[in-house]
Every structure is written in structure tokens, then in C-alpha cells.
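Task card 7
Instruction: Convert sequence to C-alpha cells.
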Amino acid sequence: MIYIGIDNGVTGSIGIINDNSALCYPMPIKHEQSYTKSVKKISRINTVTLTQLLKLYMPCKVLIERPFTNPGRMMAMLSAFRSMEATLIVLEYLALPYEYIDSKEWQRAILPKGIWKLKEKTIINKKTGKETVKQSYKAESSELKQAAVDIARRLFPSVKCEDADGLLIAEYLRRRETGRV
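Output:
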């Protein structure tokens, strides 16, 4: 079986794992004039190149990371959603089975546990004035990216990639499908 992990977005990556090998590709993109009134360039998924790449590895299973949502970063969020739609069109055109995954799910299963730090946030109820402390485990974005590259280098020393998220998503899919998560 071939397992494909897609780190969604124009700066994302595609990881491909089968029983004998692992590969990592940057997401194929193209740069062009924005479709808005402003004069600026945007990056878009090159759907022709993505289609040609994925055809090489059929049949396969695909796991694609959901785009992040953060209204405070509207332009990045819109780019992520455009990328997701383009990628989904390619997957559906090729009739490839796919599932979605949140980044935290595969990261918690693959990355070292020590990267997650307990964060506390005090929330004050405006009506009652009562304070509650909300706890969650978080990791810095730069630490997550570096940890992903480090783990990918250990698991797949012959694979060279600058963004290892797609490769680790594929590894997570392989482990899940073979009962090792």
C-alpha cells in the first residue's frame, strides 16, 4: 500500500511512503497576478503538476491536513482554503480516497512529548467576576517545524526535505492503518 500525506498550503509538502521507500516533495505551486484589484503576486497550487505527481503513486490512501483557521490572519487563512480546494479538486478528479486530519493529532502521535508545554490562561467571567484557569498543552510553531524535520531525518535518513510535515503525515497514516498508532 502507498500512503500519501499532504501538508496543505502553498508552503506545504507531500510525503509518500510505501513498504520499500519514502519520498518528500514540496507542494507544486505557481506564481501569478492576484485576482484582486491590487497589483501583487499570489501563489497557487499547480493542479496540473499535482495531478501528474499523484498519478505516479496510484492506488494509494491520502491523508490531508485541514487548513488552519485564524481570523486574525485573514490573508493566510484565505490562501490555505484556496489551496485546500485546489488539492481536493485534484484528489476527486483522480478518484483517490482521502481523509482529513488536524495537525495536533498527527503531531502528538509522532513528535516528542517534551515539545508540548502546559499553558495556563486566566479567564474572568464578566457577569460574575469569577476567575477560572484554562489549561492546555501548546508548542511553538518554530519548535514544531524543527522537531518534524529532526524526526523525519531519523525515521527516513535518505530522504531530503525542508518541510517534513507531509512525510510525517504519511507516516502517521501508515502507522494508523497498520495498527501501530
